[in-house]
Specification:
This protein is an alpha/beta fold. It has twelve helices and twelve strands. Bound molecules: adenosine-5'-diphosphate and magnesium ion. Adenosine-5'-diphosphate binds next to helix 1.
């Protein structure tokens, strides 16, 4: 398998009056061509900032301060704003959480998609509108040609999210990044959107990174799952391995708190007490140790590195000295 995106040692700092606060602390992540990677973790663990850093969209005062992110032979972190602007949409498409704030309320759907196409491909307006209709059809919007004339408020939340996907796909990207795109939608519609993206990924042979705090939601879409905690990857494995043989105590906590079908989706993890560390206030050693039922003294001594899990899938890696037996070796 060929790596499409290869992130190594990514660090992101927030400039504060008191000095820089580290929020992403050495993330390693690979996305292969045509692969779908699910990224899960509680709110505030650095999922969005990691993705925004790749395309030069970090907020003011927040900067990628270390590491590399190879994409198609170039380091995204070294590209100029102009190069990144060309890449966005054309090579890397984005879908965000809230289509109501991301879509322009006073502009017809067709014009918004056409605008993205004109910007990304330079095609003329009539051709862009035709293509916009095709894209609406691709994302399963009924009577797509008529819908070109609609305004966002005339569509349901699920249909607006489909329009956002159409815009994300406009430039035929090789990588689609979806940042909690269904959080605002009801559970049935969320599942439909996940199904749609899975189908499009296969049809268009595109890689997908899907960010969520809901492991159950992406079980059917992701080939592989990376679990983030406090700005680091704590576990990375094929999706079936994550569900059948989770190794990191944090991953096990996330799975223990999977909502049942009748529950409301949860953003909180009732089975894990405490809260993640604030940026700049991570404890020494393993950042999860203060909340971890299995923690021993050695956990606070050094940051654990991602290592292969003995006896598991060769792609299964975890950053925990207790569950991989390294603590015994150290003792
Ligand atoms: N615009 C911002 N200004 C200051 N701090 C921010 C900003 N955006 C994010 N942060 C900080 O970075 C942390 C990680 O943010 P984010 O990547 O958005 O988390 P996630 O997407 O995992 O919920 C947040 O908890 C917050 O402390
Ligand atoms: Mg986020």
């Amino acid at each position: 398998m060929t790596a499409l995106l290869d992130i190594k040692g990514l660090t992101i700092d927030i400039a504060r009056d008191t000095g820089p606060a580290r929020v992403v602390d050495g993330i390693d992540l690979v996305v292969n061509e045509g692969e779908s990677l699910g990224i899960v973790g509680e709110s505030g663990c650095g999922k969005s900032l990691t993705m925004l850093s790749l395309v030069g969209l970090l907020p003011n005062r927040i900067k990628a301060t270390g590491g590399t992110a190879q994409f198609g032979g170039a380091d995204l972190l070294k590209m100029s704003p102009r190069e990144l602007r060309k890449l966005r949409g054309a090579e890397i498409g984005f879908i965000f959480q809230d289509p109501m704030t991301s879509l322009n309320p006073v502009m017809r759907i067709g014009d918004q998609i056409a605008e993205a196409l004109i910007y990304q491909t330079g095609m003329a307006k009539p051709a862009a509108l035709t293509r916009a209709g095709e894209l609406l059809e691709l994302v399963g919007i009924p009577s797509p040609r008529d819908r070109l004339m609609s305004y966002p408020h005339e569509l349901s939340g699920g249909m607006r999210q489909r329009v956002m996907i159409a815009i994300g796909l406009a430039g035929s990207p090789r990588l689609l990044i979806a940042d909690e795109p269904t959080t605002a939608l009801d559970v049935t519609i969320q599942a439909q959107i996940v199904d749609l993206v899975r189908e499009l990924k296969d049809r268009l042979n595109m890689a997908v990174v899907w960010i969520t705090h809901d492991l159950a939601l992406i079980a059917g879409l992701a080939d592989r799952i990376a679990v983030l905690y406090a700005g680091t990857v704590v576990e990375d494995a094929p999706v079936s391995t994550i569900f059948e043989k989770p190794s990191h105590p944090y991953t096990r906590g996330l799975l223990g708190s999977l909502p049942t079908l009748t529950d409301q989706p949860m953003s909180r993890l009732p089975s894990i007490g405490g809260t993640p560390p604030e940026p700049g206030r991570r404890p020494p050693g393993c950042p999860f140790a203060p909340r971890c039922a299995l923690a021993i003294a050695a956990c606070s001594a050094a940051v654990p590195r991602l290592t292969a899990v003995p006896g598991s899938d060769p792609r299964h890696r975890v950053a925990c000295i207790v569950t991989t037996g390294q603590s015994e070796a150290a003792a």
